[in-house]
Amino acid sequence: MVETRLSLKPLASGTSNIATGLVVTPGSLTKPKTKSRRTVQSVSRALDILEVLADSGGEMKLNEISAATGLNVSTCHHLLTTLAERGYVSQNPRGRTYFVGNRILELSVTRSRQFNLVDLALPELKILSQQTQETICLAEMRVYNLTTLTMIESPHAVRVGTDTVGRSNAAHATAIGKAILAWLPETEIARVIAEKGLTKFTENTLTNISDLMENLRHVRRNGFAVDKEEFQQGVMCIGSAVRDYTGAVMGSIGCSLPVMRANSDVIDSIRDSVKRSASIISEKLGKSPSSPVISNFEQ
Fold first, then answer.
1. Of 18, 209, 217, 295, which is the most exposed, with the fewest CB atoms less than 10 Å away?
2. What is the four-CA torsion angle of 219, 224, 228, 230, rounded to 10 degrees?
3. Is 2 exposed, middle or buried (0-12, 13-18, 19+ CB in 10 A)?
4. SS3 call for 133
């Protein structure tokens, strides 16, 4: 069993407070009439075609694309031919229909790799910290280890500590871990459990695989995970997954607070804020509200 080390600080000189898991401290260039940037008409039209194809969610005929973009058929065909030559559009020769090409996906993958998740998420984490006034965490799974990428401490005198000892083995016992596990294929969850086990941190820790899988089903259904004193006594956390443009989980964010402050109104407010922040960060990774969610589970 992993021993959790707690960081406790004095409330004031000569005064201390002992609370498990808590820290106590004090075409052609068009010239517009205004001075806005110039745009290239042919580029704008090509982008219109790509957006129409992307929004269609499938394949479209030439005349359908022409009607949707407001371009004449000849111009539309020339632009599609150019886009197809560069891999941005593909054509189905049997149905003579067009769809978004693989080059778009390649660019999206390249762009997502350029992001450092901490740098990308930090502005939103700071906003979440201001909204909740509680400890905020960003985490990801590295192989089988739950890894804390960054944390922002609560300004409260009594707050959840930032000591992460033992958390690498606690994906099953933390909201940030369960928010990630919920969207992994079942085989991957099994590998994590086989490698790390289901350590019992508190009396509330889920140490039965069936109970954990049922809990993860609720996470997928509700869009957030909760641990109430499952990892640390006296501590509650709410977490939500961060996903990229494909819907694949990239990590999670969580908000931790002492259970003594966790009344129903506070929990509802934090839950909504955490879900909203995770959604905003996911959008920065290219995920739109209509993006697919990668999951091998039944809801």
1. 18
2. 60
3. middle
4. coil
Residue 288 confidence (pLDDT): 62
**CB proximity list for 133: less than 8 A, separation 6 or greater:** 154, 155, 156
CATH topology of domain 31-110: Arc Repressor Mutant, subunit A (1.10.10)
Q: What is the pLDDT of residues 252-267, one digit of tens each?
A: 999 999 999 999 999 9
Cβ neighbors of 183 (< 8 A, separation 6 or more) are: 220, 241, 243, 248, 249, 293, 294, 295
Could you tell me if residue 67 is left (phi over 0), alpha (psi between -120 and 50 degrees) or otherwise beta?
A: alpha
Whether the model clears a pTM of 0.70, i.e. scores above it, the answer is no
Indicate the domain borders of the chain.
Answer: 31-110, 115-284
Strands of 235-243's sheet in order across: 145-152, 135-142, 249-258, 235-243, 225-228
Q: SS3 string of 145-168? A: EEEEEEEECCCCCEEECCCCCCHH
CATH topology classification for 115-284 = Beta-Lactamase (3.30.450)
Is-contact 206 185, C-beta < 8 A? no
- Separation CA 254–CA 263 (nearest Å): 17
pLDDT in tens, 67-103: 999 999 999 999 999 999 988 999 887 778 999 888 8
